[in-house]
Amino acid sequence: MAGTAALAAVVALSACGAKTNSGSTSDKAAQADTSGDTIKVGLLNSLSGTMAISEVTVRDSLKLAIDEINASGGVLGKKIKPISEDGASDWPTFAEKASKLIKEDRVAATFGCWTSASRKAVKPVFEKNRSLLFYPVQYEGLEESPYIFYTGATTNQQIVPALDYLKSQGKKKIYLVGSDYVFPRTANKEIKAYAKANGMTVLGEDYAPLGSTEFSTIANKVKASKADAVFNTLNGDSNVAFFKEYKSAGLTATRMPVVSVSIAEEEVKSIGSQYLAGQLTAWNYYQTTPGAANTTFVKAYKAKYGQDKPTSDPMEAAYTSVYLWKAMVEKAKSFDPEKVKAASDGITFEAPEGKVTVDGASQHIYKTARIGKVGTDGLIQEVWNSGKPIKPDPFLKGYSWASGLS
Amino acid sequence: MTVILGQMFTGVSIGAVLLLIALGLSLTFGQMNVINMAHGEFIMAGAYTTYVLQKSIAGAGLSLIVALPVAFLVSGALGALLEWLLIRRLYLRPLDTLLVTWGVSLMLQQLARDIFGAPNVQTRAPDVLTGNITVIGGDDPLTFASSRLFILGLAVAAVVALSLTLRLTPLGRRIRAVVQNRDLAEVSGISTGRVDLTAFFIGSGLAGIAGVALTLVGPIGPTMGTNVIIDAFLVIVVGGIGQLKGSVIVAFVLGVLQSVLEYSTTVSVAKVLVLVAIVAFLQWRPQGLYTVRTRSLV
Question: Per the count of CB atoms within 10 A, which of A2, A67, A271, B154 is most buried?
């Protein structure tokens, strides 16, 4: 018994000794391992399960950015060493793996998560351990965590512009279809508030469990509603089943367009452009977005992963997030999360989507909204953009109709 | 009106999918009393067979037709192998069988992940099956999805083939004899071991056919089997163990019930209500809709 206690004490002591700050105790935040000539970062994505269709591409894109940074000398003279963990499309697994990355691997920052459910699951882990997460996907807003940087769009950079676009096209009656978890439910709450204030009607609202593949009834309901457009917040490969049923029900993009906020180039490829041609998407980046930075990014990605691989918005946001972290670390001259956060305001990067700027107060970034149309070649062509980067407003404070939301 | 008819058709088509995934199980679980938890993975094997064939044969239509017999053979062979290697040694030990086949199911899932990768994959449906057929034209048309009609046809064909095999062929007679009284069948000169193997081959092969049909509905992935296996067991238990007609009726009743409830409520609420209905029904008839009357004492 005494032997075990002694052993535990030795282990605890040696663990402390390895840390840069030897004064840390168990209740204090886990500290990044900054010894040696490499710096570890965590990549936390679903590499299996229903979300793998989307999240594997984000992991690949993160690795591309890390390779590029390492080739040009690393961060503060240290090469980045990525540690990849599989969240397996399962939210408790995400929390468990996040904890492992922070406490065992002692990473300097973590990049990843796709669904808001997974982000909500890891949020307390990052906050408790005071470690940074860079979240690269559009989401429903109404959230600010001191330890999360959001490099995807928040509501007023994606969903609100998409609704503005529908309104300008004269689409007044809409039907909402989504997966049954936090993002679609919150997004639809915001959409309903918008519709009420803008003279639009929401004819129906349906949710299917994440991973569900039985959509014939929902397609029938949508068809019977005779809506002008469908707002789709389905995630993962439920989209495959939904668009197959949509086409089978005889619904087309000209008759009743679907605006999707979670379908990018990679998903178009998996679902099949024959089901999606003509449908609308709302993002901040497409593979076809013009600009030298994007040309370089697309070329580098294809060279690394294959000529048939498309690039997409979440991949771009993930790629950008690594460079933003690098710039913050270099400005702070430290890997310490608190110093990195303090240095974040006003950091800019010439991203493939155009120049992005970090808003230090909300830890979101300025992004240009773009509505696109899926082509028969599987690529998405921009049909509208907001002209300039939109200031992130995660709590929709600038919109009077959103005052009742929380 | 067209909405109601369209929704009835949806219910029937959900029933057809349920029937296809449960049909093989009605033979292995219903007739032979083997609780095979790996049945869902035989469905998955059928689906991946379709995927592989589509990669190697150009033309979505041809590969789908070729996939039907090939998936039957692939899944049937997997099933026969499982019977011969493991289940054979565990007859009359249902709980051990359950655990062993569950383990096999996990191994097959991992095998699929290693071979085909963890992300789900899709097949292209042939163009004839992506559209729909207009039944009533006009302003408010009633349309039936062609892929669903194909699945319905497939389900009907599979049921007819299975019931004719059981009723008319010498093999079917032997299977029924073994189901009704294994000892008596054995003393009458029937090789029960061989009958078990063949029945398991056919039951697992039917799971392969179901896998081909499921590729027309949704994505193909390592865990697709676990998503359908519960539904399959529900159909068999409610239908009455050992009775084909019970499974057929229950599959369609559950399908229509699901679609009607889903239309008036939501997906999740409909699932709950269907399960409540099943529990209530089993309180009333614990042995299911139909039962086999035998003279055996057990």
Answer: A271
